[in-house]
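3.2 Worked example (two chains)
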Amino acid sequence: MIRLLISVKNADEALDAMHAGADFIDLKDPALGALGSLDDDVSLQAVRAVNRQTLVSATVGDTHDDLDTLLNLIHRKWDLGVDIVKLPIASLQKQADYLGALASLIRSKKMKLIAVMFAEQPIDLTWIPMLAEIGFYGVMLDTADKQHHLLTAVDTDTIHAFVKYCELHHLQAGLAGALRVEYLNELTPLYPSYIGFRSGVCRDNVRQNNLLPHLVKEIKDKLYKHNNFCNKMQS
C-alpha cells in the first residue's frame, strides 16, 4: 500500500491535510529550504491539533554546522511529540561517530528517524544497509532544488533501485520533490512506501502558498484506487 505524506506549515493546514486523507502530516517551513525547520511553537500547535489521529513528522533543516547542533535539533523536534524526525543524510556524514550518535538516539529515545537523500547529489545506496542496521525507520529520496521535480533529477530505474533496496533492508521508502498529481502514473508502479507532496497541493503549485485540500483529496483518491487494484490483483 502506498501512503500519502503532505507537508504543512501550520496547524490549520495540518487539519486540512488530515481531513483530506493524508497518512503522514509533515511539519516544515517551505520558505527555509527542502527540509526547512518549522518554528517549534507552530509545530507544537499542529501536533496538538492532529492529536495522534495520524502520523506526524518534523524536519530539522537542510544543513548543520556540527553534530551537536543536529542532535539538539532532533531532540527538540522529538520532544514536541512528533512520531518521526526527518534529517538530511548528507549533513555531517563525514564527521566521526555520526552514525554512532544517531544509533544512540534511536536506542535511548525509541526514535523513528527518516534519512533524506537529495536526488541532485550522487545517490549512494550503500548507506541504506547501514541506516537499517542502526535502526532507522526509513529513507526518502527528495530534491534539494524545488525548481525541478524528482523525475527530472533522477531516472525511474534509479528510483526503482532505491525503493527495492529499502524494501530489501526493511526500511520505509519515500519519494518526494516538487511532485504533482500528474506524476503518479510514473511513480505508483515503483511501489514506494509513501509519496510526499507540498508544492503540488498548493495554490499555483508554489510551495510557500496555502495548501488546497481538494488537491490532497484528489491525490488520495488516486492512491486509493491504485492500492485497491493492487490488492485485488494479489488476492
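3.2.1 Second chain
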Amino acid sequence: MHYRELLLLVLLQVGIYFVLEKKFLRFILRIKLIDRPGNNKIHSNTIPLTGGPLIFSSIIIYLIFNFINILDKSIVNESIIIFVIGFTFAFLVGLVDDILHINPQKKLFIITFFNILLFQNVAFFQTNILIFKNNFFSLELSIVSLALIFSILSFLAYHYSLSILDGINGIFGTYSVCFLIILLLFFEMKIELYNFIFYLILCLSFVTFLNFKNKLFFGNSGSLMLAALFPYLILYLNNQRDNSIYSLSYLSLVAIPILDMIRLFCIRITNRKSPFSKDLNHFHHLLFKRYQLFFTILIYISLSFLPFIFTQVFNIDALIALIVQFTCFFSGTYYLSRKKINFF
C-alpha cells in the first residue's frame, strides 16, 4: 500500500467522523461510554471515551482495505495479525472497564493470563538472549530457560506503566505518536509493519488532536490497547535481531513510564495504600502543577526519548545516556514533589 493511499484512507475516515459526529456521540451517551468529573480527575466536564473505539475501528478498516487490495505487495503479514489479536483482547477488556469499571487487579490478571497463553505459542515474543554492548563492557546473556517469564514481566512492566500514563490531555497521544515515529526512523523492519505503523501514526495524530481539544479521551479501551501494542513491538523488534540496537538502548526507550510506575508503587506502599490506587502524583501531574501543558508534554517527551535518540544519532554510549536519564528523572521528581503549588 502506498503512503498516498494510506493518507487518503485516513482522510476519508476523518470526513466520515465529522459527518456522523453528533449521531456517534448520542450513541456513546446511550451506552454510558463517558468519563465524569470526580476525585483524582482534573477535568470538570463529562467527556466521551471514544479514542479507543476510533483507533480500533481505523485499524479494522486498514485490515479490510489490505485484504481487499490483494494485488498490493504490502499485504498484512502474520506478525501484524498476531499483534491485532493481542491488542484486540486488551481493547475489549478496556471497553468493558470503561462501561462497567473493572477492579484494576482483576483487569491486570485477565491481561496477564491471556498474554501468557499468547507468548507460549508465539516464538518472537520470547526473549532468549540479552545483549549488552557499550564502551565499558560487552556481554551476551542467555536466558532461554527464563525466556517466557522474562518476556511476560517485561511486557507487564511497560504495559501497566503506559496504561496509567493517560491523565492529562494530549500526553498519552503525543507519547504514542513520538514512540512510533522513533520506531520508523531508527529500526529496520518489514514493509508490512512499516506501513502499518505509518498508518497508525496518522490515526493517532487525529485522535490526539481531538484529545487536545477536549473532544474525547482515549479511555481504558484506547490506553490498554496501545499499552499492549507497544510492548509487542519492542519484543518483536528486539527478538528478530534485524537491528544493531542492544538491551540498554531498548531500556532507555521505555524507561520513564516504568520508572514513574515503580516510584508510585513505592510511595503508595510506604503510605499503606494499594499500589493500584489512583492519585495525582504521577510525573506528568507533578510537571503540570509547575508548568503549562505545552512544557509539561515537552519535558516528558524529551526525557523519554532524547537519550535513545542521542545514542543512535551521536553515538553516545547507551549506559551513559541511561544514567543521565535516570538521574534527571529522580532529581526532577524529587524537586517537583517538594513544590507546594495548587493544581489549578
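3.3 Remarks
Residues 340-344 have pLDDT under 50 and may be disordered.
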